[in-house]
Amino acid sequence: MKALLMLFALALLALSAIVGVQRASFVRAAVPASGIVVDIESRNTRCGRKPRRACTKFTAVVEYTFANDTRRLRAGAGQSRGRDEPVSEARYRVGDAFALRVHPGTREALPDSTMGLWGLPILLGAGGGLLAVFGLWGVGRKP
Fold it and tell me: Do 9 and 52 belong to one domain?
């Protein structure tokens, strides 16, 4: 069991490193840009820790133009407790400006925030580190 945990831990840590290097390369090349929120989507789901409660999660649809190429990006826009909550509960409104970083070569964009840029590698690394701790727990102790 410990070997399996360590295998998953190493895989997550390696994935975190790969994604982190890709994000660092993206950030070095990307330029700041601005988009406009054109729509807010909502979906009913379950949120929170146990007991999980009904909630509505919101997604902002952001339209941005870079070098005469118009694209769309979806970004988290918060959540509200309860089902079928109105989109007025979202963090953004239609027409709001949205800060982005756009890669000039690929024209791909990410939200210009710490979690938008670095959230995925941080979460992968934290998960891998936690699994490694559990995998190493008790190594060297006699059964």
Answer: no
113 confidence band (pLDDT: 50, 70, 90): confident
Asked if 70 and 92 sit in the same domain, the reply is: yes
User: pTM of the prediction?
Assistant: 0.75
Contact 94, 60 (CB under 8 A): no
Structure confidence by residue, pLDDT tens digits, 33-43: 999 999 999 99
* Residues 116-132: tens digit of each pLDDT: 889 999 999 999 999 98
Same domain, 44 and 90: yes
- Domain of residue 85, residue span: 31-102
Of 100 and 141, more confident: 100
Angle at 73 between CA 11 and CA 107, to 5 degrees: 85
15 and 40 in a common domain: no
CB 94 within 8 A of CB 37: yes
Total domains in the fold of the chain? 2
DSSP string, 98-130: EEEEE-TTT--EEESSHHHHHHHHHHHHHHHHH
* Six token digits for residue 68: 């005469």
